[in-house]
């Protein structure tokens, strides 16, 4: 099961080339093509970073949930690894979304954080929910039980993400701007193109990082196997939280 | 060439002229820093894997040498 070591690193090379190229194009579009927004001015450029980070993080959490379903259905530890890494990278993305959003809030509203804004608070709740994923895994010693319970967590939390998004979308918000089309009208063509490129670049980076992390974990797993086969010293202990990948 | 490029950049409509510039720069720097931190952590992990591989390779080579020595010794005694 998952014996082919090239599996995780497959496609990493073209992805590693495509990601910086995509970012170069996106940043050029952001700073030299997309017009300055009339209401927010130059500050709106943060949205080409903040919103794709948030969207990719939320999608990543859902992807983690889907892999968790596959893990429970097929009992294949590979899917647990996929789920773990998807959530891991998405937590980093969510952290970036919170930080960049906070910077935007300071520039636009004059406050680093506004507690009565549903979009912000709900995103923080999702982030904190997923931040408990690590101690949750760490609390369970047995690897198989750990993987099963983590999958249940990932599915439950993954289902919560779109529900939470819908709830916020339906709630009346006075201050948080909407990026996609609303009743008042959507983005102009040049901004929409830039925004879609930003999302594509961010998703590409997410995929590259997931593959990179999986390859590193696979290398670690292969090394462990090699040590066992040679009956060599086991070396320093590896993470108890991360699933073993072979 | 450089002057033309500079003139084009200055004339570009998206160059910051207002107070938002420092926040935009801050947000993009935070993103780059996050990426750098992640890459540094992964670099440390890969260095650990490389160290482990070297150790395992040394053990394997040592065993091969021992096995070769074990095979050649009786032949040397015979001659």
Provide structural commentary.
The complex is a heterodimer of chains A (246) and B (79). With 246 residues, chain A is mostly helical. Chain A has one domain. Chain A contains 8 helices and no strands. Chain A is globular. The mean pLDDT of chain A is 86. Chain B has 79 residues and is an all-alpha fold. Chain B contains 2 helices and no strands. Chain B is elongated, with a radius of gyration of 30 Å. Chain B starts with a helix and ends with a helix. The chains are: A mainly alpha (246), B mainly alpha (79).
Output the keywords.
A: 246 residues; mainly alpha; 8 helices; 72% helix; 0% strand; B: 79 residues
Largest interface, by Cβ-Cβ below 8 angstroms: which chains and how many residues each?
A-B, 40 and 32 residues
Task: Indicate the proportion of strand residues of chain A.
Answer: under 5%
| Uncertain parts of chain A | none
Average pLDDT reading of chain A: 86
Helix content of chain B: over 70%
**Which regions of chain B have little confidence, pLDDT < 50, spanning 5+ residues?**
none
What structural class do helix, strand and pairing data of chain A support? Answer: mainly alpha
